[in-house]
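Exercise 3.2. Students should predict the tertiary structure of the chain below and write it as structure tokens, then compare their answer with the key that follows.

Predict this chain's 3D structure.
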Amino acid sequence: MGTAFDTESLRRGIESHDAKTLLSLYADDAELRVVDRNTQPSHPMVMHGQGEISKMLDDVYGRDMTHKLEQCVVQGDSVAYTESCEYPDGVRVLASSMMSLKEGKIVEHTVVQAWDE
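Answer key:
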């Protein structure tokens, strides 16, 4: 059996705006795909490796907003979770993630997110 995924670090990283902790959950060669209103399914934003993923995490978790891990399910080498966020002006974001793991580290991560209009 592989190494267990650290769900507590996921929660702590998200809710404490700790991009460094979140980055530590990814494999060196991980891929992160983001689908939203601007990067639709046929042309998602795709980041490869910790370097590119780090820039996105620093941006998102460096913003003045709250982040909350709502649900997290781990089954074998798959993790699914929802994250709710809110900007100070009341605009909300909901993100749903599905991740594949190898030896307890994220190797593939797809995020689908929606904002208040």
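Discussion points: The CA atoms of residues 42 and 73 lie 27 Å apart. The mean pLDDT is 95.
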